[in-house]
Amino acid sequence: MQIITFLAFTILVAIIAYYKSRKTSDQTSDGYFLGGRSLTGVVVAGSLLLTNLSTEQIVGLNGAAYKDGLLVMAWETLAAIAMVFTAVFLLPKYLKSGITTIPQFLEKRYDKTTKTITSILFLSGYVVVLLPIVLYSGALAINNMFGIPELLAVTKQEALWISVWSIGIIGSIYAIFGGLKAVAVSDTINAIGLLIGGMLIPIFGLLAIGDGSITEGISVLMNQHPEKFKSTGNAQSTIPVETIFTGMMLVQLFYWGTNQAIIQRALGAKNLKEGQKGLLLASFIKILGPLIVVLPGIIAYHMFNGQLENPDEAYPMLVSKVLPPIWLGFFAAVLFGAILSSFNSVLNSSVTLFGLDIYKSYFNKEANERQVVKAGKRFGLLLAFLAMMVAPMLIYASDGLFDYLQEANGIYSIPILTIIMVGYLTKYVPAIAAKVGIISGSVLYIISQFIIKPYVVGKDDYPHFLHVMAILFVLNTLIMLIIGKFRPRREAYQIEYTKQVEIAPWRLVNQSGIIICLIVLAIYLYFL
After folding, report:
1. Spatial contact of 182 and 18, defined as CB atoms under 8 Å apart
2. Cα–Cα distance, 97 to 496 (Å, whole number)
3. Which residues contact 211 (CB under 8 A, 6 or more apart)?
4. Is the dihedral of CA 486, 468, 422, 241 positive or negative?
5. For residues 183 and 341, is the Cβ–Cβ distance under 8 A?
6. pLDDT tens for residues 352-409?
7. Sign of the alpha-carbon dihedral angle for 310, 205, 236, 416
8. In 10 A of CB 203, how many CB atoms?
9. pLDDT per residue over 23-53, tens digit each?
10. Reduced to 3 states, what is the DSSP secondary structure of residue 447?
11. Could you give the domains of the chain?
12. Which residues make Cβ contacts (< 8 Å) with residue 382, sequence separation at least 6?
């Protein structure tokens, strides 16, 4: 019965995605990379959430909550503020200029070389960090929850390779041969399923520890583990309270406002109004995210007496313990959809970056749109293969999946955010400043976190990586402004309106954004 339910839901999603996307041409850049610029607010919101909410979030963040409790909700709730900023400030500028990729803006603002460096940084981060982590965490969850090693009579390591490659191959088919429209539609359906399935875990978990009562389960947790329900942490926590005001918001702004894998969903909106609606709807749902990606970790801490050696196993073990067998097939399908969503969304964005920003610029300048899409698809296959080779190696990462992901992302996130923000907020900073800023930002971060921290100073005595991000953001911004002072552009940069889509804003965007920010503030004050 479980297998039938799993297959039925998975096949249903695939059929609906094909039906909804079959009329969207995959032979043009807008059709393949941006879904024909036809995405509505609900589809944008669903795709944003599912691209973000996958097993690296569900497994990794619940593992972090198992260790540190509610304070790790900062990765979820503070995202809402960054999404409001993107909807109000960044998205109007993106859609006005008619860009398909973030590096395209950088070419217009600075030059072609800056665009290329940024595209290479994005792609390197995706293949070395993000895609392998999505595959690894997904395989870990599937294997632990549904006993794949026992089912196939193989070792855990062999089961990991099998699951990684199964997820990778299916995800590649979605991303490479379906384009953004197929990805976005499947994301939306899976988003609904994941919200339902994700909420089942804390509900059944609270029922289990509360002797059949959800309120009693909450009472047990809060009375026996009050330290797990603090919204702020001390210097020894994975998120010290002061980092909320330094690197944390910078990471959120990069992820929701400039990360190609995320913002591409909003760039595919049919107009600015729908894009803003999608971002704000997703930001509101994001506030509820801790119920799915934080609370189960705290429940697991109580249920397993804090004795698990690997916190990343907390969520899979909780699911297998509290979820009734009748729900396992549905939840497996939903979780599988979430894994595929993050993988194929990042892969689709990688194909977009390579096809438009590298192949078209350097390999075949006269290529037509069909040739660009074809080259992107071939590159996507190579990227998927590399990610599937790297993913099983992450079993040797010892610091926790989510912490590793966030720290490693700093190699490219802060440098890219720096040159984009300076690019939009100034008019005369030249291209040479962007090149210096992005290269120095990456190199200094690598030296700081992967040479000085482990081999010179020591992990325990070194500043938190979020503080390092903030320091480097300020430093690189100053470097760019100084260069702009002494070697300014000859002409002020102006955004040209390409009229690709209508850019009239949603009339309630400001009011909705203020309400969302106030809700986030209220949550933090309540759990002080």
Report:
1. yes
2. 6
3. none
4. negative
5. yes
6. 778 877 888 888 888 877 787 778 778 888 888 888 998 888 776 555 566 777 888 8
7. positive
8. 16
9. 554 444 444 444 456 678 888 887 787 777 7
10. helix
11. 2-526 (1.20.1730.10)
12. none
CA distances, 101 to each of 271, 423, 430 (Å)? 16, 15, 21
Q: Distance between CA atoms of 472 and 444, rounded to whole angstroms?
A: 8
- In order of 112, 418, 437, the CA distances from 412 in angstroms are 18, 10, 11
- Helices of type H across 147-155: 148-152
Q: What is the 3-class SS of 95-141, one letter each residue?
A: HHHCCCCHHHHHHHHCCHHHHHHHHHHHHHHHHHHHHHHHHHHHHHH
Token code pair at residue 505: 């804003």
Contact indicator for 358, 124 with CB cutoff of 8 Å: no
* CA distance to 3, 126, 442, per residue, from 407 (Å): 37, 14, 12
* Phi, psi (rounded to 5 degrees) for 502: -70, 130
Q: What is the pTM of this model?
A: 0.81
271 phi and psi angles, rounded to 5 deg: -160, 175
